[in-house]
Amino acid sequence: MSKLPSLKNLSYLLALHQHQNFNRAAEASHVSQSTLSSGIQNLEEQLGCQLIERDHKSFLFTSMGEQVVDQARQILTSTEELLNFAQSQGKLMEGPMRLGCIPTIAPFLLGDLSKSLQRQYPKLQLNFREDTTSNLLLHLRNGELDALVLALPIDLQGNLSYVLGRDPFKLVMHKQLASDLSEPVIYNQLPDQSIFLLEREHCLTGHAVAACELADSAKINPFTATSLHSLVQIADARLGATFLPQMAIDRGILNGTDLVALKPSGHQAAREIGLVYRATTSRRQTFRKLAESIAALLPEPTLS
Amino acid sequence: MSKLPSLKNLSYLLALHQHQNFNRAAEASHVSQSTLSSGIQNLEEQLGCQLIERDHKSFLFTSMGEQVVDQARQILTSTEELLNFAQSQGKLMEGPMRLGCIPTIAPFLLGDLSKSLQRQYPKLQLNFREDTTSNLLLHLRNGELDALVLALPIDLQGNLSYVLGRDPFKLVMHKQLASDLSEPVIYNQLPDQSIFLLEREHCLTGHAVAACELADSAKINPFTATSLHSLVQIADARLGATFLPQMAIDRGILNGTDLVALKPSGHQAAREIGLVYRATTSRRQTFRKLAESIAALLPEPTLS
DNA sequence: CCACTTTAATTGGTATTACCGATTATGATA
DNA sequence: TATCATAATCGGTAATACCAATTAAAGTGG
C-alpha cells in the first residue's frame, strides 16, 4: 500500500486549479510560491502521474489533473465538514449553514425562514444564495453550499433529499377575464397564446406544464418573463393568464392587483419542494431539523 | 480557517476503532504505539473535541468519536480510490475490483461474468464476495467493496446505481401438479400453504411476493428454505410450488428434475438487477463498462 | 536590441514535527 | 505482593515543510 497524498497538497492543487497561477494560488493558500510548487510536484510523484503539463512559462492541467481536482474537491469538502462538525461539538443547528434557493421560491420563503430559524436556533449562522437549479447543484458539489431548497423532481446526481411539501399551482388572471370560467379551469376555454410563463431556465416552467397537464402548447404565449413579478404585471395588464405557485400568492404577490387565482385542471396541479444535500455530509440530523422548519412554512407540508 | 486534520491521523483513528487496542492498532498501521497515541491526541486537539474516553486502563470511543470514525472512513476510502485511479493512469477496467453479489444471483452470474471479463479486460483483477444485501451495503460504505450486484428496488442509502435488466420470476412445480393449470397461473387454484419461499433475509422473498402480487399469504408455506437449491428439492419432492428467477433456470437449476416453470400472474412478475456503487467514486466510467458486461448476461437486459 | 517584468523551478538553510525507544503510571491478574 | 498489559509521556533524532533568495525562461515596452 503506497503512501496517501496529503490533504495539504490536494488543497494546493485545488488552489492552483482555481487561480491558474502559482503565485496567486500560493498567496491564497498562505504559503510561499516555492512551497506550493514543490507540493504539487510531491503530489504528482505520490500519485505516480502527471497532473499539469509545464511548457516553461505557463502550464495546463492534464485530463488526469482535472479528474484528480474533482475528486480532491470532494475529499476536501468532506474533511472540512468533518472539522466543522467536530468543532461545533456535533451540536445540531449550530455553526455556518449556506443555503441555496431557486428564484421562484426564495422571495416567498427566505424571509420567514430566516426569522423562524433565528428564533429557534440562534447559533445557526445562515447564508443564502439565489440561483438556478443547475448552478446551485454545482455549488453544492463544490462544497460552496451546504443544502438547497429546490422544486422537485430533478436529477439528484447522487445527492440526498427530503421532500418538504407540495406547493399548488394557481391559474391567475384578471377578474374580468375570469368572470365566465368555472373551476377547475379547462384550458381550451382560453384563447391561444394566452398563457404566459417564465424563461426556460426556470424549472417552474417545466414543472407547471407537467403538473397542470398543459400539453397543448398552442395556449402558451412565446414571450417568456424573467420573474414572477413580471408575470403578475402581464396578467394585471389583461394580456393573458399565468401560473403562480401558492407560496407566492400566500405572501401577497397579488396584493394591489385586480387578479384572481383559480384552481387549474390537472390531477395534481402542484410542485413539490425539497431540501437537497450531499450524500457525504456529516450533518444529516441538522438537515432533518432544517427540513422540519422549512416544511412548516409551506402551503401543504408533507415531510418525508 | 483552522488546520485540516491529517489523513494519517484519521487512519490511526480508524485502526484504533477496528482493533480497540493501541498496540495492535499501531502494529497494523506500521508505527509505534507512542506515535499512534500522540497521533490520536493530535487529532483530538485539531478537531477540538474528545474522541475517546480514557479510564486509565482501557478506553471507549465517545459518540462523537464514533461519528468522526464514520466520516473519516468515507474520506479515506475516497482518497484511496483517488490514489488507485491515478496510479492506474485513469485507465478504465484495470486494477482491483471488489464486487459483492447476493446469493440468489451469484451462482448464476459470477461464473459467466468472470469468464467474459477476463477475456475482455485481462488487466481487471476481480474479487467476489457473496452476502446479504444489507451486509454488502455495509461493506460498500466501508470501502471494502467497490460495487454490488443486487436485486432492486432497495434503499440505496445515497449510493448510485445502474439498472442492468429484468429477471422474470417463474412459478416452478412438479409436472404432475402442473398438468391441469393454465398460464399465467392464478394462485387461488393452488392449495393453501403450497408455495415455498426463502428465508426472510433474502430479498428475493420480498421481491417475489411484491412482483407476483402474492398478497394472499395463506398460500405461502411457513417453512422457509435457505437456498434456491433447497427450494428445487422441495418442489421436486412434490411438497409444493416455488418461485425461481429466470437466471437460475437458464443456468440449469432444474436439470435432472421433473419440474416445470410456468408463467405466474402479476403484471410485471420480475425482479430488476442493478449495479450499486458509491456516489463518491472516481471510477464511474469503469462501473459503466462493468454494467454493460453484466447486463449482456441477463435474461432481459435494459441498461439505464 | 536591450532593460524590465512575470512566471515557475531550484537551492540552501531553518524550524517544525513525525517518529522511535525507553520509561512511567495505572489497573488487572496471579 | 509481584507480574503483566496497557496507554501516556519523555528525550533525542531523522525527516520534511517551509521560506527567502536565486535562477531560468519567456514575454513586454521603449
From TrEMBL, chains A, B:
Q: Which family does this protein fall into?
A: Belongs to the LysR transcriptional regulatory family.
This protein's GO CC annotations:
protein-DNA complex
The molecular function GO annotations come to: DNA binding; DNA-binding transcription factor activity
- Domain (HTH lysR-type): give its ranges: 5-62
The protein depicted here goes by the name: LysR family transcriptional regulator
UniProt entry keywords in alphabetical sequence: DNA-binding, Transcription, Transcription regulation
Q: Which SUPFAM superfamilies match?
A: Periplasmic binding protein-like II, Winged helix' DNA-binding domain
Give the PANTHER family listed for this entry.
Answer: TRANSCRIPTIONAL DUAL REGULATOR HCAR-RELATED (PTHR30346), TRANSCRIPTIONAL REGULATOR OF OXIDATIVE STRESS OXYR (PTHR30346:SF10)
